[in-house]
Structure formats: structure tokens, C-alpha cells
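Section 5.1 Outputs to date
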Amino acid sequence: MLVQNMEDYLLTQQMAKSHPFYKENGYFMSEQGPLAKKLDEKMRKAFNPLSLEIINESHLHAGHQPGFNGEGESHIRVRMIAEHFNGMNRVSIHRAINTICAEEIAAGLHALSIDVKGTS
């Protein structure tokens, strides 16, 4: 679901509160759960970013696969700006991020969206 305005955003948050994941875990799926927190720590340690967002987008993929209801932390987006990436091409940046996330990918992280750039 693409949220285009505040009304859509509020409706999405309302719907999320009624979702079993929120009721069981006590945080919105777009907030940081244990996996997102771990990735946040690893990214900060490795890249010392000026800005960093680790976003759980799993709920946006509910129904895409039979039996997948959007719970958990299977689809993560990384948005980051860090001097570390200055002069690197997109493939090199993605390799660096995937290296940091290798353990989580091996453990079942299904999708990792990477929106990363350098400071210059």
C-alpha cells in the first residue's frame, strides 16, 4: 500500500493496530523490532552514518505469497547517508550493506531494499 497523504497514513496506522502482530508485539510493524534494532546497531558501527532509517516493510507484502500475512521482519528497507559511501558505485554500496546483513539474510531475511548514498 502506498501512503500518499496524512489521511491514508492515519488509516494505515489504525489498520496496523488491529493486526495480530501489533497486538502480540506492542509496536507497529513499521517501527523497529528486534531485527531492525540489530541492523541499526550494525550499520551505525560499520558506517557511522549521518542519517539512518531501518524500516520494517513486511506488512506491505501481506498476501503476496500464500500463507504470508505480513507479520515479522522479513522485508527491511535501509535508508542511509554516510561519508563511507563517497566515491562508491551502487554495486559496491549494495555489496557493503549485504556483507553487514549476511547473518540476517542467512537466517531468513527475505528482502532488503537499499536506499543509500554518500555525503558528496
